[in-house]
Amino acid sequence: MSLTKSWYTIDEASSKYGVSVTQIQQWADQGLVRTEGENGVIALVNSDDIELKLNLTPSV
After folding, report:
1. Burial degree of 24 (CB within 10 A; 0-12, 13-18, 19+)
2. How many helices (H) does the chain have, and how many strands (E)?
3. Residue 2 domain-assigned?
4. Domain-located, residue 42
């Protein structure tokens, strides 16, 4: 069991990681970030997935 918070709203995740809301939504749409929500509306995103994606994305 994780002792840290793993799920954030998209706005919280955007602020925490410095990634745009649009980018997080694109990752979610591509299945690269796990989400929780209903009726196609994303309520929460998984921060572990965002961290993994940021570590794998090469810097330009």
Report:
1. buried
2. 3, 3
3. no
4. yes
Domain containing 37: what range?
Answer: 7-56
Identify the pLDDT of residue 57.
59
- The pair of structure tokens assigned to 59 is 């810097």
pLDDT tens, residue order, the chain (60 aa): 556 789 999 999 999 999 999 999 999 999 999 999 999 899 999 999 999 999 965 655
The answer to the question of residue 1 being in a domain is: no
56, 41, 40: which is closest to 9 by C-alpha? 41
Structural domain contains residue 49: yes
Q: How far is it, in rounded angstroms, from Cα 45 to Cα 24?
A: 8
